[in-house]
Specification:
Blueprint lengths: L1 H22 L9 E5 L5 E6 L3 E6 L4 E10 L2 E6 L10 E4 L8 E6 L2 E8 L4
Antiparallel strand pairs: 1-2, 1-8, 2-3, 3-4, 4-5, 5-6, 7-8
């Protein structure tokens, strides 16, 4: 009796997980890197499914870590120690993307070009 129930639960998980991933606006970001350019420096950010992120600024040898949360169409990053002059948390609009996508984000008159690349860079 227990075995059929366990098999049923295992199969239902197989069918539910892809639907949940399709609803996760961040799914395409996990295990990949967003590279943003424009402004003062190129920034590489890696988002992890456990709601943590690592942001690197290679030109300056800087690294920042923190947690992220999505609320509707907004991504908020809370830094352990924020970059100089950066508000904490930093909240920006978020949309789903896949590896190879390039888009522009902006806050006020500042804009940056963002590309989602495969792997951690």
């Amino acid at each position: 009796m227990i075995r059929p129930v366990l098999i049923s639960l295992a199969l239902s998980t197989v069918f539910v997980l892809p639907a949940a991933a399709a609803d996760d606006v961040m799914a395409g970001y996990y295990g990949n890197t967003t590279i943003s350019t424009g402004g003062m420096a190129e920034v590489h950010t890696v988002y992890v499914a456990d709601h943590t992120f690592v942001m690197k600024v290679p030109a300056y040898g800087m690294q920042f870590k923190g947690t992220w949360a999505v609320n509707g169409a907004t991504l908020c990053r809370t830094f352990e120690t924020p970059p100089p002059g950066q508000q904490n948390p930093l909240c920006l609009p978020i949309t789903a993307h896949k590896v190879g996508d390039t888009w522009t984000i902006g806050v006020g008159s500042e804009t940056r070009t963002v590309t989602l690349v495969k792997g951690i860079q």
